[in-house]
C-alpha cells in the first residue's frame, strides 16, 4: 500500500480491499514513527483526519465516489484549512487556526480526500531548502544530512519517505519543482491562474501557484484534476472549460519536438546532473522525439529580476502581519508603532526580514524605476524568449536544479548561493508558464536528479503525457529511499 | 552603490521591523551581496520594452456590487491577540 499509485489506491478503496480509515491509520502510523527524524509535518490531527476518512468510507459505500475519495493527502502549511493550525512555517502565525478553507482544500474535501496533516516549509515559502522554517529544517529521506529542497520540502519529504501518498505544494520560483527534484519525486507547477490562490497565504502574488507533488506523472494528473478550476474569489483565476488531465497520458511521443536550451547546460550545471539529463534526452529520442536546439538568451537575468519582483510583492503582502487582527503580538511595547516593530522583528525569521527589506527598498521613492520597472521589463524579455522557443518546439527540457541535494547548513548563511538554486525554475514563474520535474537518475552520493519539463500556457495535459511516457519506459520514479524504515 | 547603515535602518523603519545596530550591520553586508546580484540586471538593454506586471495579460473581472460574504465577525475577532466589545484593541494612539 505504501508504494501504491493513486489509481491503485482508488481501486483498492472502491473494491473494499481497504477502507479509508485503515489507509489513513496506515499513513498516520508512518508519520508517528518517522516524523521525528524527517520533520516533514508541522501538524497532524488524527481525530480530524479519521473523521474525514469515516465520511469518505460512507461515500465509497454508496458507490460512484470520485477517484481521490478516501485517499489521504498532505497539505503544505501555506493552505488555510478550517480548524487546522496554519503557520506558513512562521512564528508570526504559530497560533493561527484557519477560519475557512482554501479553495484547494475545498476541492480535495469535495472530492472526498482526507487531510493527512500540514507539512513543513520555508517560512512564507521563502527558501529552497526548508531551513528557514520556524519549526526547523525538514530532512531528505534519501540522506538525512541533506535538505529535501524547498520551499515545499516537508511535502516532498513526506511523499518520498511514504508518509503520505501525495501532497500539495506551492511554487513561486521553483518551490514545487526543486524539492521534487532533490527528493526524487514528480511535481507540477501549473500555468499561472489554473489553481486558485484563495486561502493560499500570499508570498508574491503575480508568481505564486499551487500544484501537486507525487510519485508519478499519472498521480499528478489525478491530483491536478481536483486542484484546477475557476474560483471567483481569486481575481487572477482563469475562466476556462474543465479539462481531464488523464486523457492524453497514453499518447505516443513520436514526432514530439523537445526544445533544449543551451543556456541551461552551461556553467554552473554539475556534471552528474548534466549526465543524467543527457541520458533522459536520449531516452526521449528512443521514444520517437526529436531534439531542437533553442535559446533562452535572457534566462540568465531571471534571478536578479526575480529578487526584485518577488521581494517587492512580498513586502506588500506581508504588511498584513502587524499583530492586530491575528497571529503573534509582541508582549512588551511602548506604543502602536513600537508594537508593530517588535511584533514583526520577533515574528519573522531572518530570511523573511531580509526579503521584506529588499522589497521595501526597491519600491521606495526614487528607486522604483531603477529596480521594479527594470525588473518588469526583463520579465517581458524572458516571456518573449519562451514565446519564440515554443514556435519551434512542443516542450522544453533541461535540468530542474543545477546540483543534487546539498547538506543542511552549507548554504544557509549565504543567501545569494541559495538563490542560485532556482536559476532554471525562476524564468518559468516570471513567464507564468507551467513546469514540472520528474526523476531521471542519480548523481553524487546516490541522490536523485530532476528533469525539468516546461510547456506552453495550459499545456499541462501534454506535459503529463510526455512525463508519463518517459516513466513507462524508465523506473527512476519507482526507486525509493533506502534506509527508511518500513 | 552599497547601502549605508543609515539606509538599512531607514528601510527597516519603513518596513516597521525593529533592528538593533548589531543586526543592522549584519543585515547590511547580506543586503549588499544581494543588491550586487540584483545590480546585474542594469546591464540588460530594455529600451522600448513594455514592463510585464503579471504572468498573464489578464483583464480584471467585474462583478455586481452585492454582498457575497456572510457575517463572520465573531469568528475572525476570536483570532485577534486583544479584543473588547467586538473591536480590535491596539495600544493607545492619541493621548
Structure, described:
- The complex is a heterodimer of chains A (486) and B (95).
- Helix content of chain A is 38%, strand content 12%.
- Chain A has 486 residues and is α/β, with parallel strands linked by helices.
- In chain A, the strands form two sheets. In chain A, strands 4-6-5-10-11-9-7-8 form an eight-stranded mixed beta sheet.
- In chain A, helix 2 packs antiparallel against helix 3, helix 7 runs antiparallel to helix 15 and helix 9 crosses helix 12 (368-389).
- The longest helix of chain B has 19 residues, at 21-39.
- Chain B has a domain at 5-42: Histone, subunit A (Orthogonal Bundle), CATH 1.10.20.
- Classes of the chains: A alpha/beta (486), B mainly alpha (95).
- At the A-B interface, helix 9, helix 10, helix 11, helix 12 and helix 13 of A face helix 1 and helix 2 of B.
Summarize, please.
The complex is a heterodimer of chains A (486) and B (95). With 486 residues, chain A is of the alpha/beta class.
Would you spell out the secondary-structure blueprint of this structure?
The complex is a heterodimer of chains A (486) and B (95).
Chain A: H1 6-14, H2 20-38, E1 41-43, H3 46-62, E2 72-76, H4 103-110, E3 114-119, H5 153-160, E4 167-171, H6 177-182, E5 186-189, E6 209-214, H7 217-227, E7 257-261, H8 271-286, E8 290-294, H9 302-317, H10 336-347, H11 350-363, H12 368-389, E9 395-399, H13 415-419, H14 426-431, E10 435-442, E11 448-455, H15 460-473
Parallel strand pairs in A: 2-3, 7-8, 7-9
Antiparallel strand pairs in A: 1-3, 4-6, 5-6, 5-10, 9-11, 10-11
Helix pairs in contact in A: 2-3, 7-15, 9-11, 9-12
Chain B: H1 5-14, H2 21-39, H3 73-77, E1 83-84, E2 87-88
Structural class of chain B: mainly alpha
Beta-strand percent range of chain B: under 5%
Low-confidence stretches of chain B: none
Helix/sheet category of chain A: alpha/beta
Unreliable parts of chain A: none
Order of helices and strands of chain B: HHHEE
Q: What's the helix count of chain B?
A: 3
Amino acid at each position: 500500500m505504501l508504494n501504491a499509485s493513486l489509481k491503485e489506491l482508488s481501486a483498492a478503496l472502491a473494491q473494499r480491499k481497504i477502507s479509508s480509515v485503515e489507509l489513513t491509520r496506515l499513513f498516520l502510523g508512518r508519520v508517528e514513527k518517522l516524523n521525528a527524524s524527517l520533520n516533514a509535518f508541522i501538524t497532524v490531527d488524527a481525530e480530524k483526519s479519521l473523521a474525514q476518512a469515516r465520511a469518505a468510507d460512507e461515500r465509497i459505500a454508496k458507490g460512484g465516489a470520485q477517484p481521490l475519495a478516501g485517499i489521504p493527502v498532505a497539505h503544505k502549511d501555506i493552505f488555510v484549512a478550517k480548524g487546522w493550525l496554519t503557520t506558513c512555517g512562521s512564528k508570526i502565525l504559530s497560533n493561527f487556526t484557519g477560519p475557512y478553507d482554501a479553495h484547494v482544500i475545498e476541492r480535495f474535501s469535495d472530492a472526498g480526500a482526507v487531510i493527512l496533516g500540514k507539512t513543513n516549509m520555508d517560512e512564507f515559502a521563502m527558501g529552497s531548502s526548508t531551513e528557514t522554517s520556524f519549526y526547523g529544517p525538514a530532512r531528505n529521506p534519501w540522506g538525512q544530512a541533506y535538505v529535501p529542497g524547498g520551499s515545499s520540502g516537508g511535502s516532498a519529504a513526506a511523499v518520498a519517505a511514504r508518509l503520505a501518498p501525495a501532497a500539495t505544494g506551492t511554487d513561486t520560483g521553483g518551490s514545487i519543482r526543486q524539492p521534487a527534484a532533490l527528493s526524487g519525486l514528480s511535481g507540477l507547477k501549473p500555468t499561472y491562474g489554473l489553481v486558485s490562490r484563495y486561502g493560499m497565504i500570499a508570498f508574491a502574488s503575480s508568481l505564486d501557484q499551487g500544484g501537486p507533488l507525487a510519485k508519478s506523472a499519472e498521480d499528478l494528473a489525478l491530483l491536478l484534476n481536483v486542484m484546477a478550476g475557476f474560483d471567483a474569489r481569486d481575481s487572477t483565476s482563469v475562466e476556462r472549460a474543465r479539462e481531464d488531465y488523464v486523457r492524453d497520458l497514453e499518447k505516443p511521443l513520436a514526432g514530439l519536438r523537445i526544445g533544449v536550451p543551451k543556456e541551461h547546460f552551461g556553467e554552473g550545471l554539475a556534471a552528474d546532473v548534466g549526465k543524467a539529463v543527457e541520458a533522459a534526452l536520449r531516452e526521449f529520442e528512443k521514444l520517437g522525439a526529436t531534439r531542437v536546439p533553442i535559446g533562452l538568451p535572457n534566462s540568465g537575468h531571471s534571478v536578479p529580476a526575480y529578487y526584485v519582483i518577488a521581494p517587492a510583492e512580498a513586502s506588500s503582502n506581508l504588511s498584513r502581519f502587524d499583530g492586530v487582527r491575528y497571529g503573534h503580538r509582541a508582549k512588551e511595547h511602548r506604543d502602536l508603532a513600537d508594537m508593530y516593530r517588535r511584533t514583526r522583528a520577533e515574528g519573522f525569521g531572518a530570511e523573511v526580514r531580509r526579503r521584506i527589506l529588499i522589497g521595501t527598498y526597491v519600491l521606495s521613492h526614487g528607486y522604483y524605476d531603477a529596480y521594479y520597472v527594470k525588473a518588469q521589463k526583463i520579465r517581458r524579455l524572458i516571456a518573449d524568449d519562451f514565446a519564440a522557443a515554443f514556435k519551434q518546439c512542443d516542450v522544453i527540457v533541461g535540468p530542474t536544479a543545477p546540483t543534487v541535494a546539498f547538506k543542511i547548513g552549507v548554504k544557509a548563511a549565504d543567501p545569494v548561493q541559495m538563490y542560485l538554486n532556482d536559476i532554471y525554475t525562476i524564468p518559468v514563474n516570471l513567464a507564468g508558464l507551467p513546469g514540472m520535474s520528474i526523476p531521471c537518475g542519480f548523481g553524487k552520493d546516490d541522490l536523485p536528479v530532476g528533469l525539468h519539463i516546461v510547456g506552453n500556457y495550459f499545456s499541462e495535459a501534454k506535459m503529463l503525457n510526455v512525463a508519463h511516457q518517459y516513466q513507462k519506459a524508465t523506473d527512476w520514479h519507482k526507486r525509493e529511499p533506502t534506509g527508511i524504515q518500513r | 552603490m552599497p547601502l549605508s547603515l543609515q539606509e538599512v535602518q531607514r528601510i527597516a523603519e519603513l518596513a516597521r521591523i525593529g533592528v538593533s545596530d548589531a543586526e543592522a550591520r549584519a543585515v547590511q553586508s547580506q543586503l549588499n551581496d544581494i543588491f550586487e546580484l540584483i545590480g546585474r540586471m542594469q546591464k540588460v538593454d530594455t529600451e522600448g520594452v513594455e514592463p510585464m506586471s503579471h504572468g498573464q495579460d489578464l483583464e480584471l473581472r467585474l462583478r455586481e456590487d452585492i454582498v457575497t460574504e456572510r457575517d463572520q465577525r465573531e469568528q475572525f475577532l476570536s483570532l485577534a491577540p486583544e479584543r473588547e466589545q467586538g473591536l480590535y484593541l491596539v495600544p493607545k494612539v492619541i493621548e
